[in-house]
Amino acid sequence: MVIVKVSIVGPVASGKTTIAYQLSVEKNVKMTGIDELVWIRQKSKPDIRRSHQQRIENIDIATAESQWIIEGTQVRLILESDLIEKSDYVFILKPNRMVVYYRILKRFLSQTIGLDKRNIYKPKLSELKNYYRWANKFYDNEFEMLYKMIPRSKTTILTGRNAQKNMVLIREIINK
Description:
This protein is α/β, with parallel strands linked by helices. The chain contains eight helices and seven strands. The model has no long low-confidence stretch (mean pLDDT 90). This is DNA topology modulation protein FlaR.
C-alpha cells in the first residue's frame, strides 16, 4: 500500500476539488478542503473565519493522520503552515487563465439558477467579483510565490484543463 500525503493547490475553479475527490475515492484516503479548516460554515448566517492560530492548528490536526489529501487556494496559509513539508506530493494546478474565468462564470450561473446543488444559497454578484479577483491574485502573485518556496523534488505543476488527463499524470507519479 502506498502512503498518500498529497497537497493540491490552485486558483478557484482550477479543478482541485474534483481531482482531490477522485484521488480520495481511488486511494480510500480522507480528503479535506482547506476552506473547511478556515471557515465555520453556518446555514442561515454568514460564515465565520477562524483565527490564524486555529487555522494552523486545524492543518496540523488534518496532517497528523497517516494518509491525507488536502486541497485549497489559500497560498499564504499553506506556506505559513508546515503543510508542504509534510506532503509527499504537491500538485499545483495552473490551467489557462481564460479556462478558469469560464469555469468561474459557469459555476456562478449554475449556482444562481439552482443547477449546482452543492451550495445552499444563491451567490451574490460581489462573490463573482471575488472569484475573479482571487483567480487573478493566484496567477499574478501567488503562483510565483509557491514556485519559489516549494521543493521541486515533490512538486508537479499541471497546466492541463482536463481533470481526467491530470488524474492520469497524478496516478503515474504517486504509483511510481
